[in-house]
Specification:
The chain is an alpha+beta fold and 297 residues long. It is built from ten helices and twelve strands. It starts with a strand and ends in an 8-residue tail after the last helix. The protein has two domains: 62 residues, Phosphorylase Kinase, domain 1 (2-Layer Sandwich); 218 residues, Transferase(Phosphotransferase), domain 1. A four-stranded antiparallel β-sheet has the order 1-2-4-3, with helices on one face. A hairpin with a 6-residue loop joins strand 11 and strand 12. About 6% of the residues have low confidence. Its main location: membrane. It holds the Pfam family PK_Tyr_Ser-Thr.
Length: 297
């Protein structure tokens, strides 16, 4: 975890995860306090539940519900042999989006998670996803601007470039990070990869933008899925992801808009239009044409 080791335990016959603060971590204690204070006041089915905590002298620990299937990162990095289906990827993305939407809209003042990445999206035995690790989270002002100046925190590759350069924090910073996660879910590729032609690293947004500009949705989607995805659905999710990951924050959708798009995609997939053999057609861009999302390309 962010500030110490995480152990698997049992409490009153229930499995739990116990995050223990390392004695040497002063930064960790600040994050521990932030996490306890936040999780005691927020409750949502797509946020990991805090069952209890211990703060006695040098013994500092957080006790969470146990998430049996690890992290989204475990699946995307191939640490698990199970390959998530297209429909499962959509549902996990929707779960995570709903958790973020609650932090942004269901909490007063709004909360910015600040470190959205696959390692912080946990998955339970029913493949339900929940946002975790709130040690870096911050409340932001309700004055309509929601742009608090803070020390920049987050993970390279997922960090909103506008927040990085201005130090102005808003909910749209989480939207950027979520867009990057969504691109990983679609492509199964790492966020930063070495260029095959030039001696430099290329960010996932640049790689996907190039593929989409040539109309290559097949080359964009995770090859582990084979033909088991719907091309129209893949186009739509890739476009949503690219809109989220726009370098300019005002061009990004809100998490409420993202949730609406993902709900529609999950419904279509369940109705049989999203997980069968791929049909390679040009994307149906209705949501984007309506102006709900900025064009990603």
């Amino acid at each position: 975890g962010g500030f110490g080791k995480v152990y698997h335990g049992v409490l009153n016959d229930d499995q739990v995860a116990v995050k223990i603060l390392s004695v040497s971590s002063t930064q960790g204690y600040k994050e521990f306090r932030a996490e306890v204070e936040l999780l005691l006041r927020v409750h949502h089915k797509n946020l990991t539940a805090l069952i209890g905590y211990c703060n006695e002298g040098k013994k500092v620990a957080l006790i969470y519900e146990f998430m049996a299937n690890g992290t989204l990162g475990d699946y995307l990095l191939g640490k698990k042999s199970y390959v998530l289906s297209w429909e499962e990827r959509l549902q996990i993305s929707l779960d995570a989006a709903q958790g973020l939407e609650y932090l942004h809209n269901g909490c007063k003042p709004p909360i910015v998670q600040r470190d959205v990445k696959p390692a912080n999206i946990l998955i339970n035995e029913k493949l339900q996803a929940k946002i975790a690790d709130f040690g870096l989270s911050r409340s932001v002002a309700l004055d309509g601007n929601n742009q608090e100046t803070t020390d920049v925190a987050g993970t390279i590759g997922y960090l909103d470039p506008e927040y990085h350069s201005t130090q102005r924090l808003s909910e749209r910073s989480d939207v950027y990070s979520f867009g990057v996660v969504l691109l990983e879910v679609v492509t199964g590729q790492p966020v930063i990869a070495r260029s095959r032609t030039r001696a430099e690293n290329i960010h996932i947004t640049d790689r996907v933008e190039l593929l989409l500009s040539t109309g290559d949705i097949r080359g964009t989607v995770d090859p582990k899925l084979g033909e088991r995805f719907d091309a129209g659905s893949a186009w739509k999710i890739a476009e949503v992801a690219m809109a989220c990951a726009s370098p300019i924050s005002k061009n990004r959708p809100t998490m409420s808009q993202v949730v609406a798009e993902l709900k529609e995609s999950v419904s279509r997939a369940r109705a049989g239009g999203g997980s069968g053999a791929s049909s390679f057609t040009e994307p149906a861009m209705t949501a984007f044409d309506s102006g709900m999302f900025p064009q990603a390309r």
